[in-house]
Amino acid sequence: MRAVVQRVLNSHVTVDEKIVGKIGKGLLVLLGIGRGDNQKDVKYIADKIVNLRIFEDEEGKFNLSLLDIEGEILVVSQFTLYGDVRKGRRPSFVEAALPEEAVRLYERFVEYIGEYGLKVETGVFQEHMIVHIENDGPVTILLDSKKLF
């Protein structure tokens, strides 16, 4: 499982010109699910995200997590995080999970984040989405449950 985590002042996602998910201060998470991912990957990435200390304390240091600031989270599925472009110019997505498996783990990820008591909004799985982001910093973190980076 891979995630691009961006600290935001606000973010929203639209489908067919309708807002389907909207948050204030918190994190936008672009989530990719790979072949072979399971509940352990869900738990690892979710726990890591909500506990990342990437919000500034009163001294301007990264000491606060999403939980500490009682922030919000917007989760958007993005299978293209598994695009392999090492060969050729067209991405290969063979390492991305099949949609039937990916949607199950995506939904479990969203549920698991919600168990922390945070406001969780989402995009729409397998839809063309427009993601509006007001980056804060900008702060962007890459995560991989297999710890490849």
Question: How would you describe this protein?
Answer:
The protein has helices at residues 39-51, 66-69, 99-114, and strands spanning 2-15, 18-23, 26-32, 55-56, 62-64, 72-77, 119-122, 130-144. By secondary structure, the chain is α/β, with parallel strands linked by helices. It has a single domain (2-144), classed as D-tyrosyl-tRNA(Tyr) deacylase (D-tyrosyl-trna(Tyr) Deacylase, Chain: A, 3-Layer(bba) Sandwich), CATH 3.50.80. The strands form 2 sheets. Strands 1, 2, 3, 6, 7 and 8 form a 6-stranded mixed β-sheet that branches. β1 (2-15) and β2 form a beta hairpin. α1 (39-51) packs across α3 (99-114). The longest helix is centred in the C-terminal third of the chain and has 16 residues, at 99-114. It starts with a strand and ends in a 5-residue tail after the last strand. The mean pLDDT is 97.
Produce a short descriptive summary.
With 149 residues, this protein is α/β, with parallel strands linked by helices.
CATH topology: D-tyrosyl-trna(Tyr) Deacylase, Chain: A
Can you tell me the CATH class?
A: Alpha Beta
Could you tell me how far the N terminus lies from the C terminus, measured between alpha carbons in angstroms? 12 Å
- Mean pLDDT comes to 97
Compute the number of helices: 3
Shape label:
globular
Beta content = 35-45%
Q: Total strand count, please?
A: 8
Order of helices and strands: EEEHEEHEHEE
Helix/strand/pairing category: alpha/beta
Low-confidence stretches: none
Rg (CA only):
15 Å
Mind telling me the CATH superfamily name? Answer: D-tyrosyl-tRNA(Tyr) deacylase
For the report, how would you describe the main beta sheet?
A: 6 strands, mixed
How many domain units? 1
User: What CATH architecture label applies?
Assistant: 3-Layer(bba) Sandwich
Q: How much helical structure, as a percent, in the residues?
A: 10-25%
